[in-house]
Write a structure and sequence with these properties.
four-stranded antiparallel sheet, elongated, five-stranded antiparallel sheet, alpha+beta, 40% helix
């Protein structure tokens, strides 16, 4: 973990909500944040700690996951550059009920929660963009709930591949930075089940995987598997 800092006013990677702030409000945000770089695999936030900051991903990728009583993990979300983490905990004192870890080298802006809340009170356009991001997360969680509770392994894995391509990497093909264990924890199945699904999808010509490079070859078929579960 390495800490550095540059002015919010000069940042070229502002999220849409921060683009709504005035120069004085950006200066206020700048004085209430820390910019921290993490290496792949490093813990960023630990389940059970106090919730103190909103996390903005300047670059990189993280996983948000639940540490379960049986010592296993369930990955709740995967976030890439431009994401805000921690919005559901605004305006209430609460212990974190998830952990956050870097899936690749990542730079985070940790913004003081109370400063973030003050900006919401002061700037309506900023607040609207925050609500938009919360709405997107809510809709995503609805889809995740259906996938995990009503779909078989192949349907879940198809959902995972579509999400990674369309939302996380925004590319096809893409270079996968998740391990097979990460894929299993996100899909909610065993590592062996993920390996079998990869082999089946590859044999059926739906995807091609070479090392970390993943390419969706038959998008229609993958969407069909996702839909039918």
């Amino acid at each position: 973990m390495v800490e550095s800092k540059k002015s919010c006013l000069l940042c070229n990677n502002k999220s849409e909500c921060f683009r709504q702030l005035s120069d004085s409000q950006l200066d206020f945000a700048n004085s209430n944040r820390a910019e921290i770089s993490y290496h792949k695999g490093e813990m960023i936030a630990k389940q059970g700690n106090f919730y103190t900051h909103i996390l903005y991903l300047q670059s990189g990728m993280v996983k948000v996951y639940k540490e379960l009583p049986d010592s296993s993990n369930l990955i709740l979300s995967i976030f890439g550059t431009g994401s805000l983490i921690g919005l559901p905990f605004l305006f209430k004192n609460q212990i974190l009920d998830y952990s956050v870890a870097a899936l690749e080298d990542t730079t985070i802006c940790a913004i003081d929660r109370h400063a973030f809340e003050k900006l919401i009170h002061e700037n309506g356009e900023f607040a609207v963009e925050v609500v938009n991001q919360l709405n997107q997360c809510t809709l995503y969680n609805y889809d995740r709930l259906v996938s995990l509770t009503h779909k078989q392994i192949n349907g879940r894995f198809a959902d995972t591949l579509l999400y990674l391509s369309r939302v996380v990497y925004k590319a096809n093909p893409f270079n996968l930075t998740l391990s097979r264990k990460d894929l299993a924890e996100y899909t909610g199945v065993s590592v062996m089940s993920v390996i079998r699904a990869i082999k089946e999808f590859k044999n059926d010509g739906v995807i091609d995987i070479s090392g970390n490079r993943v390419e969706i070859l038959n998008l229609n078929q993958l969407e069909r598997i996702s839909k039918t579960g």
